[in-house]
Amino acid sequence: MRPQVLKHLVDDAPRVMVVDGSKLVRKLIADVLQRELPAVEVVGCASIEDARMALEAGPVNLVTTSLTLSDGDGLALARLVRETAGQAYVPVIVVSGDAQQHLEQRRFTDYVTDYFDKALGHEALATFIRGYVQPETIPGATILYVEDSRVVAEATKRMLERQSLNVLHVMTAEEAFALLTAESLGRSSHRIDLVLTDVTLKGELSGLDVVERVRVDFGYGKRRLPVLVMTGDGNPLNQSSLLQAGANDLVQKPIEERLLVTKVLFQLRLARLNEKPMVR
């Protein structure tokens, strides 16, 4: 089955706004984006006021912003984008060296769609943005999916399988650990590329236990085996504990297909960005 075309933006030639106080950073990001996406139009802005004028001049399809700007911060800019007529559903990506800390402390607001750690570099940022603009799947990549609701699991599996991803669905954390153990011992025909787990599971173990076991007991780092946790829990402390335990990212429930697919594909691409052959 061919992957479903899942466009996040309606334009074939999207306008991407890059907001950063450094002219050099804006140019570096623009150069990489234009190389990766030749049809893109990059709108560089140094401040919130520059961004306001650019938004008045015409719609944009995606916004990246640093957290610190000369006349405010990236969160204020995200709010401006949301409140600007016609911009309500534009992805707003915060680019920061402190993104993970801010995420763990739940400082980002509902106006922010996603975050990116600038330490990963501009090439990875271009890959990340392309995930929103022109998502590219990795056919055959294997997702270990832990979900105890068959109804939810079937709907989510369809979302992933539409992208030609192979989904191994299990109902409990214990079943997931059995598959991971078999792989670690070389007794599995699959290489598991990503773990997707609900935070609430039947039995004694939870999604948090899955994260902790993957990171501590199995010793897999975030690049080798990304873990995404699906949660409907809005408690900042609970969300923070998942990220501090080693989850790569959270996916809020109810699941929005485009965002789920974007996050999954980005983590898969990032894991393979500088991948070296593994010695088993």
Automatic annotation (TrEMBL):
Source taxonomy: Bacteria, Pseudomonadati, Pseudomonadota, Gammaproteobacteria, Lysobacterales
Lineage: superkingdom: Bacteria
UniProt-listed SMART domains: REC
SUPFAM superfamilies: CheY-like
PANTHER family: STRESS RESPONSE REGULATOR PROTEIN 1 (PTHR44591), TWO-COMPONENT RESPONSE REGULATOR (PTHR44591:SF21)
Domain Response regulatory: 15-133, 142-268
Keywords per UniProt: Phosphoprotein
Any Pfam family the entry gives: Response_reg
Protein name: Response regulator
Residue(s) carrying 4-aspartylphosphate: D198
